[in-house]
Amino acid sequence: MTAGCLQAGVLPENFLPQLPELLGLQIRTLGYCCQLIGGVLVEQCPNRSEVGRRLLVVSAQFNHCRTVLRLFDDPAIFVYTKQYGLGTKEEDIFIRWLSVLSNVTDQLYYPCEHIAWAADAKVLRVDSAWWWTLNTALWTLSLLLGAVKALWTMLKLRQKLRSPTGTSASQLPRSKRRAMEARICSEVLTLLSNLADLANAVHWLPRGILWAGRFPPWLVGLMGTISSILSTCQAARAGRQAEADSP
């Protein structure tokens, strides 16, 4: 998506479905940036600690906004999970079952978060802490599965580029080589983004599990900002690719 299209008010057909995702990324990035800057000010700049605390409050509100917006994500997640099914069209059996397990995890993640949110809002009389812990555990598992999937896909693609079956790398069509290289780059971004989020997910698990509860606010903000920037880069690459492929 180019800036010219937005300024001219001309949107490609495939842009509208991406708007909710782009909005979520913007809110996410702003929230983590506020947490990063606020955390640094509180810890390193005593004379500006009040500004830092206010930024941390803003960050918390952005995160709450994202939680509320995710109340409307269930239909899209359900449709995607249903369409993928058991992944019978997937060539790689390992990727197939990783994807199925990841889809099941994501399908459970959203209801748990909704219940935790409803408990915090006093809509439901349940223990919100328990549901938030379960929600975080599911998120951690989903990120771990995503990281493994990205790493496996990246290694398989590199293997094909180096010694594709029945042909040499130099004999591959140039367009196919470029597509594979672009896919590898995308998987690298996915892997790094998932690992950054995974660091935060473990931090939010109950104390006693690895480094749970040990991150200062600025480090949580840093990991989240890195992940958000990488996700934004991915979205931009996907948008350019979709624009190039459209007639």
UniProtKB/TrEMBL annotation:
Subcellular location: Peroxisome membrane
Record's keyword terms, sorted: Membrane, Peroxisome, Transmembrane, Transmembrane helix
InterPro entries linked to this entry: PEX11, PEX11C_met
GO biological process: peroxisome fission
Listed transmembrane segments: 129-152
Residue ranges the record marks as coiled coil: none
Protein name: Peroxisomal membrane protein 11C isoform X1
Lineage: Eukaryota, Metazoa, Chordata, Craniata, Vertebrata
